[in-house]
Design a protein that fits this description.
Elements: H1 3-40, E1 41-45, E2 60-64, E3 71-73, E4 86-88, E5 100-104, E6 122-129, E7 134-138, E8 141-144, H2 154-162, H3 165-170, E9 191-195, E10 202-204, H4 207-221, E11 226-228, E12 231-234, E13 237-238, E14 241-243, E15 248-252, H5 262-265, E16 268-269, E17 273-280
Amino acid sequence: MKKENLSEYRVVALIVSVLIWLCVGFLGIVILHYGRRVLVCDRFVIRGDSMTPTLTSGEKVWVRKYLMGPRIYTHFDFSKGEPLRCIRLPGLRRLRAGDVAVFNSPDGWGHLDTLAFQLNYVYAKRCLGAAGDTIGARNSHYYSSGADPTGIPAEREDLLRSCPDSLLRSVGGFEMGHFAGEYDNWTIKDFGPLVVPARGMSVRMDSIAVSHYAKVICYETGMRPDWRDRQACLGDALLPEYTFRKDWYFFVGDNVLNSRDCRYLGFVPEEFVVGIVVKHG
């Protein structure tokens, strides 16, 4: 081989080698970027004032997915009516009352009587009650057996307490508990006590339990329970007791005067939780 041809070959080989390494490096950066978003942490932008003053509109928050374990989709059809199918990898700890978390809204497609998943339809709220906790509000003070205090700013509870009921009713933000059949009894100032469902927890199915947990049972079984002839029924079978199959959570915005959250939408299943907010800014 002539010297000139050998030099040209070496130049071409060097260029090809550089291009290969550039492609490998770019592919590695892409894998690291999306691997970090899926497995480690991801960033979300706060929209609205439901978490004021803790989080403000436009603020960027980091969600640490490795804390409670990253969520891995096993089914990628996210069209309307399709259930969420995923697994959660092991994490460092469970989501607790008092934590701020990002989660998919249980009202994904706008139907208050059913629970549905919609991709990228997420909220950032404070966990008032984790699975098994008892929650409620008395005279605008929010409480939870899982955290005392709950983390909701006292000044926001005071603002809610001082706001006239008539004003809240006029803007349609006073009554809550649609999901629990308590629209006529519960308000954002006074509701509960309400137990958040936990995996393996059993409840006696009276008329109140049927109302409170109808959406949960429907999501877990595919059938909605009802109260007939003074007894609970699921389909054609009697349902004297029900044992929950999943862990559930109840989220409330720190701006309790103005937040669309679980007080209106109902419980959130564990697989809908994206991760825990531990750093913002």
